[in-house]
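Researcher: We plan to redesign the surface later, but first we want a full-length starting point. Tokens attached.
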């Protein structure tokens, strides 16, 4: 055990050094935006890899967290006559490897499994931890509501999920997923799921399992069915996906129901009020030490609330979501905190989601109440600049100047024109997407740009909707 502790101390020191480097790399990054020079973007994403260093972290006496056995974390608490498992990864293959690693520290039977929420990467491998003895399985009353009730759009969500996480990217294109490594084995998704047998009531639950005192606190945030787990004697807090080392994914570009941002901030605030000595995130490395853990949670809650408050203030003076997405920023004193850099969540995406969640799609401007149909708008844009050839030249000029977003938007106009070179428009869009991807340190954005470019290039997308 002493040798393991020495190893973990060394690793922690290495991670701290890496974080200082990371802060240096982000100097000068535009707040609220995630586009930087390509070499800087790549260095930042590579630096974030330290959060996925595979291994078992001994976070407290008899408390262990397995990092990077899949995308999420799983943890084991060793009690008197058994162990408790918190979250169970994606499927039996990844979970069985984590379970085997845990057995180096205890061979006691599993007495309880706790699901912090119902996202598939936290619940799919439970069977791999269970032996002959049937454990209690704890979850919230609303367990299973993580994705809302929008099953009707599952077909397109699945495609967008693949793009967001870069599941089809080649090794040369992959970096990571912001809060998880790339290239996870997802072939057995959910095959080890075991249904909950104990419901945590809305006012929480205090109980003892295997001699370990546990407190369950309902904590809606990334999902409505989330809870966090508090060990009052050990001062260890298991946050689930309401906290990880990145600005939070207040909106996922794969498509989600509205994530109540205000609830999320308040839930993290409750965690901070406990002043934990260790916070174990749903993804990325645990944060150890009372000051570090408590400060991280306080900062996280404040950052979320600030984005919400700035958005609401802007809404109430009549600003629309696109304007606000460029104006709302992480507070200056928080913007370079390593756990608030926008590797996974994005402030602009969050702002648009808050706007839609509070007011719906309409921005209040009568100009946008009944906008022109895209084909008609494209024709009028063409007429405005003197014809299809001139619009095409403007598109090519934007690409040549590395004005990738403008090239992208112009290509979407050119594609609608019957007399346009649509093959050229497609090529410009592909190059512009890859140009944007190279400058992105937000992993979902980067993965989506690259995935979409590949789909365009391979012909998977139609002429109309590319």
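Model: Full-length starting sequence:
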């Amino acid at each position: 055990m002493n040798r393991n502790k020495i190893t973990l101390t060394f690793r922690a020191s290495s991670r701290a050094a890496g974080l200082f480097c990371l802060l240096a790399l982000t100097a000068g990054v535009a707040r609220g935006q995630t586009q930087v020079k390509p070499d800087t973007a790549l260095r930042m994403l590579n630096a974030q890899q330290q959060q996925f260093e595979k291994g078992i972290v001994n976070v407290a006496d008899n408390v262990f967290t397995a990092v990077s056995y899949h995308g999420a974390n799983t943890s084991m608490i060793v009690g008197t006559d058994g162990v408790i498992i918190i979250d169970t990864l994606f499927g039996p293959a990844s979970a069985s490897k984590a379970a085997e690693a845990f057995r180096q520290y205890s061979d006691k039977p599993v007495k309880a499994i706790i699901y912090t929420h119902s996202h598939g990467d936290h619940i799919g491998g439970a069977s791999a931890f269970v032996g002959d003895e049937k454990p209690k399985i704890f979850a919230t009353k609303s367990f299973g509501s993580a994705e809302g009730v929008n099953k009707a759009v599952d077909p397109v969500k699945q495609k967008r999920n693949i793009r967001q996480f870069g599941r089809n990217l080649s090794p040369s294109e992959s970096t990571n997923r912001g809060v998880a490594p790339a290239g996870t084995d997802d072939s057995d998704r959910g095959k080890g799921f075991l249904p909950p047998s104990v419901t945590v009531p809305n006012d929480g639950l205090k109980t003892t399992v295997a001699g370990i005192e546990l407190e369950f606190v309902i904590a809606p945030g990334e999902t409505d069915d989330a809870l966090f787990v508090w060990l009052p004697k050990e001062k260890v807090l298991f946050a689930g996906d309401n906290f990880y080392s990145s600005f939070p994914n207040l909106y996922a570009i794969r498509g989600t129901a509205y994530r109540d941002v205000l609830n999320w901030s308040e839930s993290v605030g409750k965690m901070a009020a406990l002043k934990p000595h260790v916070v174990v995130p749903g993804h990325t490395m645990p944060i150890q030490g009372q000051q570090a853990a408590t400060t991280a949670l306080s900062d996280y809650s404040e950052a979320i609330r600030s984005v919400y408050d700035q958005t609401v203030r802007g809404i109430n003076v009549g600003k629309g979501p696109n304007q606000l997405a460029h104006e709302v920023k992480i507070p200056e004193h928080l913007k370079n905190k390593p756990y608030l850099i926008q590797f996974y969540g994005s402030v602009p995406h969050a702002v648009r989601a808050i706007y839609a969640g509070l007011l719906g799609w309409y921005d209040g401007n009568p100009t946008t109440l009944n906008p022109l149909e895209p084909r008609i708008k494209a024709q009028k844009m063409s007429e405005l600049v003197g014809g299809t050839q001139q619009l095409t030249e403007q598109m090519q000029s934007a690409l040549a100047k590395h004005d990738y977003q403008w090239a992208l938007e112009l290509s979407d106009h050119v594609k609608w024109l019957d007399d346009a070179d649509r093959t050229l428009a497609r090529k410009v869009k592909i190059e512009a997407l890859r140009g944007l991807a190279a400058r992105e340190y937000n992993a979902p954005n980067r993965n989506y740009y690259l995935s979409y470019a590949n789909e365009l290039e391979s012909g998977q997308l139609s002429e109309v909707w590319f």
